[in-house]
Amino acid sequence: RPNLFARYLHTKRTFSIAVLVPEIGDEFSAMLISGIEAKLSEAKFNYFVESHRFAPEQIENSPDTLMDRQVEGMIFLNTPLNREMPVPVVAISDITNAPGVTRIVIDNYQAVLLALRHLTELGHRRIAFFKGPEGNGDTDARWKAIVHASAEMGIQVKPELTATMGTYFAAGEKSMMQRGYEAAQMLMQKSQDFTALLAFNDGSAVGAIRAIQDAGLTVPHNVSVVGIDDIQIVGFISPRLTTVRQPLKHMGEMAASTLLRRIQGEAVPEETVVQPELVVRESTSRING
Fold it and tell me: Which residues pair with 226 in a beta bridge?
């Protein structure tokens, strides 16, 4: 087994990468980290993960703390960064906007289009929507995609059938499932004139399904529900969730590979857009009546 300190003395390199995440325990981050770990292990790089728990001061200070540990590069997951760093940074996020950041992002327009086409093919026209937390990764791009795709397909995006999910910095106070539960309750209090719901992501979809069931309705008989992400748990809940898959582990692998290339001085695209895939399960069905 190679001695890491001897390796450092010989090369004057740490072969260390920092990964900054909002939360370590959520399944979205875990799937991304799994892909990151696989690629870094192949390259014999070490990595460590730091969680900022959505705390503004920690988000601001964490990059400097990570630099004190002499990392050769950083990967940001759904975390803002507004200043250039002295080492390469790759982000799986569209809110990491500092100069010099390389981004891996999902094609939000295609994700929304896949979901809406699926629902309209099942006969749904009265569709409710969740808008993600303000300032969160994908929130603005996904909402713009909803407005654009809905207009193209002749679907009305009605204020009474839209629920918002708070802010990015409040995300440490409530899980995405709890936010989805409360957003669905708010929707049903305003109007029950919808037959389908496109949630912001899988976590909010899981919470919404529970709220719909607690209101005495069934999914998908009364309301069809679609998520976005395809985290592992959604294939095992009841009903199993129809969702639009982000290839999360693959995106983690891409981020790590891209960062390693940048560390070696290679040129890489500033942004790589990943294509999603519709996964049809049990939470959607043809409209009744």
Answer: 198, 242
